[in-house]
């Protein structure tokens, strides 16, 4: 049971980090580049 729980926790963390990366990529795509405005 402990092993399964650990596995589930890591799976959840992996999914969360993947989601965070996707959100970051989307934010970068949606935001106008600030370097160009400088």
Automatic annotation (TrEMBL):
Entry superkingdom: Eukaryota
Protein name stated in the entry: Uncharacterized protein
Source species: Arabis alpina (Alpine rock-cress)
């Amino acid at each position: 049971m402990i092993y399964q729980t650990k596995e589930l926790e890591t799976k959840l963390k992996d999914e969360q980090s993947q989601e965070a990366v996707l959100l970051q990529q989307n934010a970068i795509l949606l935001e106008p580049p600030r370097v160009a405005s400088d």
